[in-house]
Write a structure and sequence with these properties.
The complex is a heterodimer of chains A (343) and B (399). With 343 residues, chain A is mostly helical. Chain A contains 14 helices and four strands. Chain A has a two-stranded antiparallel ribbon with strand order 1-2. The longest helix of chain A has 31 residues. Chain B has one domain: ABC transporter involved in vitamin B12 uptake, BtuC (Orthogonal Bundle). In chain B, helix 5 packs across helix 6 and helix 8 crosses helix 9. Classes of the chains: A mainly alpha (343), B mainly alpha (399). Chains A and B meet through helix 5, helix 11 and helix 14 of A and helix 6, helix 11 and helix 15 of B.
Chain lengths: 343, 399
C-alpha cells in the first residue's frame, strides 16, 4: 500500500509537467489549428529563464579581505554578489535563495513576448498550410532555439537550486499512519504539483468565466462565425498563443530545480507531450490534462521493481504501449471530439 | 526503354551518370589545396549519400504518394542493420544473404507495425508510428540487450561461428565484408595531377543498389498501383465511398518503404559491420522526413537530392572551425575579420545544426516543394519566354 501511494506521488510531478506542456499545445492547436513542434523549446526557454535569473543575481564583485589569507598567504579575495551589497547580506541572500520563485515573475513577460514574436513572425504565415508544413517549420524553429541556448549556456546541465526552505522532504508516511520514512516526498515536488494545479485551474477559469475566454471558446468552435460578428478573433488567438507560451515557460521555470536544465530537455519532453496530447484527444483541454497525469503515474508505476521483474523493460515503454492501446481502442483519444484532425 | 517513357529514362540515366562519376564530381578541388575540405569524394561520405538516398526514396513512396507521415521509419533501418550484422556473425561475411535477410525482416516488421498503425490516419498515424519506433529503440537499449548488445552496439567478434565462412582470418583478425570475394572496404586511388580520386567497391555496390531502388521507384510511381496511392492521398474518403478498400494499398506502400529502409540498414551494416540502437531514435526518423521534404516530397529525384544535400552539409559544415574561418578572412582588417568570424562561427562546426534548422525553416516557408520546386522556378525564370506553355505542362508533385 505505501509503495502504491509513493508511486502515485512520484507520478504526480512528472505528470504535472506533461499536463502543463500538453495544455499549452492543445490551447494552440484548438485556437489556431497549428501543430506546434516548438512547444518543447518554449518549456526549455522557461527553464533557462530561471537559470539566467539565478546567474544574474549571483553577479559578484570582488573585495580583498586583509584579515584573512588564502592557502598561498595572499590576502583573501571575497566575492560578494551585488545584490547583497545593495540590500544587505540578509535580504540579498534571501533574494538569491528565492531566485527560482522570483523567476516566475521574471519569465512571464519574457515568455509572452517570445510567444507573440513566434506567432506574428512565423506561425501566422502557416495557418492555411498543411499540418505537415506546420510540423516541419516549427521543428526547424525548435532546432534553432535549442542550438542558440546551447551556444550561450553550453551543453552541460546547469544546477538551479530550489530555495533552502524547500530543500528537504516531507514524511507522508508518518502523517497517514504508516511507518515513518516509508513515504517521503521532496517539498519542491509537492510545490510543483500544487503550482501546476493552480495554473491549470487558472487557465480553465479564465476560459470559462471571463468574457475574453468565452469569445475564445466561441472562436475555437466556429472561427468564421465569430469573425462575422465583428470580433477580431485573430488578435485574441495571438494572445492565447502568448498565454500558452507562458504556461509552457512556467512549467519549465518550476521544473528547473527538479531536473537541471540542459539544451535538449525541450526535445525530450516534446515527443512525450505529443503522445499525451494525442492520447487525451486533439483539441480537448481536459483530455490533455487527464492524459498527462495518467501517463505520468503509469510511468512511475512501471518503474517499480516488482513490476519490472514481471515484465522486464516495461518502464521504458509503458507510455508508448498505453498510447497504442488507447488509440486503437478509442480512435480519437480519451476525450477527443469528432472531426478534429481526421483528414 | 526498360518500360519507362523517355523523360523518366533520361532521369534514370542522369542519376546513373551522377552516381557512377560521383568520385570525380564530388572531388572538384586538388587534394592539397585550401578548398580540399569541400571535397566530398571520399568513400565513407559517398556511401552515406547513396544509402540515405535509398532510405529517402523508400520513405517518399509512403509519404510522397499516400501522404501518410510516418515518424518511425528509422526503426526499420535499425532492424535491417541488426539482421545484417547477425548474418555476418552467424553465416558468412558475404553481404548478399545479409542484405536479403535485412530486407525480409524489416518487411515483416513493417507489416506488423503498418497493420496496426494504418487503422488511423493523420496525426494519429504519425504518433502511432512514433510510438512503435520509440518502443523499438528503448527495448533495443534495455531488455533486448542479448540481441542488440545494448549501448555498445552489435559488433563482430573473433569468436563468432560464421558457419559458411571463417571465424578469423589467417592473421587472426576479423574478416571483412565482401561480395563473393570482392572486399567492400577496398579502395582504388587514382592520382591525376593534384587530384586524388577514390573508387571504393562498397560505394559502387551501394550505387548499384540505389539505381535498382530508383528504377523500382519510377516503376511504382508510374504504375496503376502508384496511381491508386495518389488517389488515397487526394481523397481517401471518396475511394472508400466507391466501394474500394484502400487498406491493402496503403499497407503495401508501408511495407515497400519499410523494405527500402531495411535495404538501407543492411547496406549500412555491410559497409561498416556494426549496428547501434541510436539508428532507431526518433531524431533519425525525423532526419529522413527532413531529407524528403527538403528535396521535394512526391517527386522522384527530390529525396535523393535532399539526402545528398543534408549529408554533405552535415559533414562539410561540421568540419569548418575558427582557424579555417580566420584563414579565409585574413585579408580583411583585424576588427572586421574578428567580427565576421564571430558571426560565422555560430553557423559552422558544432553549430551546423543551427544552419540546418534555419535552412529548413526557409525552405518550408518559401519553397514548400523543396529543392525540386526551386529548380523548376529557376528553370522557368531562365526561360521566361515560354513560361506560359510551361505552367500548363510542368510536372507537379503528387497531390
Amino acid at each position: 500500500m505505501d509503495a502504491i501511494i509513493l508511486q502515485i506521488l512520484n507520478g504526480l510531478d512528472k505528470g504535472s509537467a506533461y499536463a502543463l506542456i500538453a495544455l499549452g499545445l492543445t490551447l494552440i492547436f484548438g485556437t489556431l489549428g497549428v501543430v506546434n513542434f516548438a512547444h518543447g523549446a518554449l518549456f526549455m526557454i522557461g527553464a533557462f529563464c530561471a537559470v539566467s535569473l539565478n546567474k544574474l543575481l549571483n553577479l559578484s564583485f570582488e573585495t580583498v579581505d586583509p584579515t584573512r589569507t588564502d592557502f598561498l598567504g595572499n590576502p583573501l579575495k571575497v566575492k560578494t554578489p551585488y545584490i547583497e551589497g545593495w540590500f544587505g547580506p540578509d535580504l540579498g541572500h534571501a533574494i538569491i535563495d528565492w531566485s527560482v520563485p522570483l523567476a516566475i515573475l521574471f519569465s512571464i513577460p519574457i515568455m509572452i513576448a517570445v510567444g507573440f514574436i513566434m506567432e506574428r513572425g512565423l506561425i501566422k504565415h502557416f495557418y492555411r498550410r498543411p499540418h505537415a508544413d506546420q510540423i516541419l517549420v516549427t521543428f526547424g524553429l525548435a532546432i534553432v532555439l535549442q542550438e542558440l541556448i546551447k551556444h550561450y549556456y553550453g551543453a552541460n546541465p546547469i544546477q538551479t537550486p530550489a530555495p533552502d526552505a524547500f530543500k528537504g522532504s516531507f514524511d507522508f508516511g508518518a502523517m497517514m499512519g504508516f511507518d515513518p520514512n516509508t513515504i517521503i516526498y521532496p517539498y519542491w515536488r509537492m510545490i510543483y504539483f500544487a503550482f501546476a494545479a493552480v495554473i491549470i485551474g487558472g487557465v480553465f477559469a479564465f476560459l470559462q468565466f471571463t468574457t475574453f475566454g468565452m469569445v475564445v471558446r466561441a472562436g475555437m468552435a466556429d472561427r468564421e462565425t465569430v469573425g462575422l460578428l465583428g470580433i477580431n478573433i485573430d488578435k485574441r488567438f495571438t494572445i492565447m498563443f502568448g498565454l500558452a507560451a507562458a504556461v509552457a515557460g512556467l512549467a519549465g521555470v518550476m521544473y528547473a530545480p527538479i531536473n537541471s536544465p540542459n539544451y535538449h530537455m525541450g526535445m525530450d519532453f516534446l515527443v512525450l507531450s505529443f503522445v499525451v496530447v494525442v492520447v487525451g484527444g486533439m483539441g480537448s483541454l481536459p483530455g490533455a490534462v487527464a492524459a498527462g497525469f495518467l501517463l505520468g503515474i503509469l510511468e512511475s508505476f512501471a518503474s517499480m521493481n516488482e513490476i519490472k521483474s514481471i515484465i522486464p523493460g516495461i518502464d521504458q515503454i509503458v507510455i508508448y504501449v498505453a498510447a497504442i492501446v488507447i488509440l486503437l481502442a478509442r480512435p480519437r483519444g480519451l476525450l477527443g471530439r469528432r472531426g478534429v484532425m481526421e483528414d | 526503354m526498360l518500360g519507362l517513357n523517355k523523360k523518366d529514362f533520361t532521369l534514370l540515366l542522369i542519376v546513373a551518370a551522377l552516381v557512377v562519376f560521383a568520385p570525380f564530381i564530388l572531388n572538384p578541388f586538388p587534394a592539397d589545396s585550401a578548398m580540399a575540405q569541400f571535397n566530398a569524394g571520399y568513400p565513407d561520405l559517398m556511401q552515406r549519400f547513396v544509402i540515405f538516398g535509398i532510405f529517402a526514396i523508400g520513405f517518399n513512396i509512403l509519404f510522397g504518394l499516400t501522404g501518410y507521415l510516418s515518424f518511425g521509419h528509422a526503426a526499420f533501418l535499425g532492424v535491417g542493420s541488426y539482421s545484417a550484422v547477425w548474418m555476418f556473425k552467424l553465416l558468412s561475411m558475404n553481404i548478399v544473404p545479409a542484405i536479403i535477410l535485412s530486407v525480409i525482416v524489416s518487411g515483416l516488421f513493417a507489416m506488423l507495425i503498418g497493420y496496426i498503425s494504418l487503422r488511423r490516419t493523420g496525426i494519429y498515424f504519425s504518433i502511432l508510428t512514433l510510438a512503435f519506433a520509440e518502443m523499438s529503440f528503448r527495448l533495443a537499449y534495455s531488455v533486448l540487450t542479448p540481441i542488440t548488445n545494448g549501448e555498445t552496439g552489435l559488433q563482430l567478434t573473433l569468436d563468432d561461428p560464421r558457419i559458411l565462412g571463417e571465424t578469423a582470418t589467417a592473421t587472426g583478425s576479423i574478416p571483412v565484408t565482401n561480395f563473393f570475394g570482392i572486399e567492400m572496404r577496398a579502395t582504388e586511388v587514382m592520382n591525376v595531377g593534384g587530384w586524388s580520386f577514390q573508387f571504393n567497391n562498397g560505394y559502387y555496390m551501394c550505387a548499384i543498389m540505389l539505381l535498382l531502388a530508383f528504377y523500382l521507384a519510377i516503376r511504382i510511381f508510374r504504375s496503376p498501383f502508384g496511381m491508386m496511392l495518389r488517389a488515397v492521398k487526394s481523397n481517401q474518403q471518396r475511394m472508400n465511398y466507391t466501394g474500394l478498400n484502400t487498406k491493402p494499398y496503403t499497407l503495401a506502400a508501408f511495407v515497400i518503404s519499410g523494405m527500402y529502409a531495411g535495404l538501407a540498414g543492411g547496406l549500412m551494416a555491410s559497409m561498416d559491420p556494426l549496428a547501434g540502437a541510436e539508428r532507431m531514435q526518433w531524431t533519425a526518423s525525423g532526419e529522413v522526413v527532413l531529407m524528403t521534404i527538403l528535396g521535394g516530397a512526391g517527386t522522384l529525384i527530390g529525396p535523393v537530392l535532399g539526402a545528398g544535400f543534408i549529408k554533405y552539409f552535415e559533414n562539410i559544415f561540421s568540419k569548418i572551425n575558427e582557424q579555417v574561418l580566420h584563414s579565409w578572412f585574413h585579408a580583411l582588417p583585424d576588427g572586421i575579420e574578428n567580427a565576421v568570424v564571430w558571426v560565422l562561427e555560430h553557423f559552422v562546426g558544432s553549430g551546423w545544426h543551427l544552419t540546418l534548422g534555419l535552412l529548413f525553416m526557409l525552405v518550408v516557408t518559401f519553397l514548400p516543394g523543396g529543392l525540386v520546386e526551386g529548380g523548376q522556378r529557376l528553370g522557368r525564370l531562365l526561360r521566361r519566354k515560354d513560361a506560359e506553355k510551361k505552367t500548363a505542362t510542368q510536372s507537379t508533385p503528387a497531390e
